[in-house]
Structure formats: C-alpha cells, structure tokens
Design a protein that fits this description.
The chain is α+β, with helices and mostly antiparallel strands. It is built from six helices and five strands. The longest helix has 18 residues.
C-alpha cells in the first residue's frame, strides 16, 4: 500500500472508538460541578457540598442550597432537573417542587436539598452530615 492510505492513517491515529472512561470519582465530581453551577446560575445562596461516601447508603454526596422564595426554589429545581436529564441522568426524582419550603432532588449518587432559609436552619442538614457529624463519630 502506498504511504498515506486510509488504513495507515487510521493506524497512525490510534485505536478507534476507545475513549478513556472517567473514574467513578471523576464522574461524581463532574455531576457535582454541574449541580453547583446550575444552582449558582439561578442565584442560590450558601451552596454547600458534602461528601457522604462511606457514611450513607442512599448517596455519595449531598448538595444543600438556599432559595429566598417558593418561585426561585421551584425554578432552581426545574432547571437542575432539565440539566441533569440533558447530561444523561434519566431517573431524577423531585419531591416538593410544587411550592414548598424544602425540595429534594435525587440524582442517584448525589442528593440535592433546596431550602428556604427558615427550613434550612430548622433541619440543620449540614450539622447532621457535615464536620460536626464527623467529630461526633470520632468522639
């Protein structure tokens, strides 16, 4: 075969169709970034991400954010659900999006809680799952 034939060009280009699959941790990081960026784009306040790996059976990460009004929280949930679906996550469960102080979005390995400020203070999920939780386990 003369130089520059399609077969030689393909061989020089390397294996076809083999892309490196990101590790589960990298996939979680990307998903968390998508979630946090979506919430920040919708002007969420006090966005916090917690690592639950090894501490909870229901998820590996949790994202908590505050919205100031029902309408804002509902919009954040709708936008996030659409972005998650567009990124390939087909089974997104949303609870409380019909006008509530607390909306839960289950994206599989990451659970998202959207609160009004009063409800966030009342439930205190950061205290339950955050640094203070780690200290209580060690104590």
């Amino acid at each position: 075969m003369p130089p520059g034939t399609p077969r030689k060009k393909a061989a020089a280009a390397g294996p076809r169709g083999r892309r490196e699959t990101p590790s589960p941790a990298e996939q979680l990081d990307r998903l968390q970034s998508l979630i946090v960026e979506s919430l920040e784009d919708d002007k969420a306040e006090d966005v916090v991400a917690l690592d639950l790996a090894g501490r909870a059976a229901f998820a590996d990460r949790m994202v908590i954010a505050t919205g100031l009004a029902d309408r804002q929280i509902s919009a954040m949930a709708q936008h996030l659900e659409r972005k998650l679906h567009d990124s390939g996550i087909r089974r997104v469960q949303v609870e409380g999006a019909g006008g509530s102080d607390w909306v839960l979005i289950d994206a599989g390995d990451i659970v998202v809680h959207l609160f009004k400020p009063e409800a966030r203070a009342l439930y205190g999920l950061e205290k339950m799952w955050g640094i203070e939780f780690d200290e209580a386990l060690r104590g």
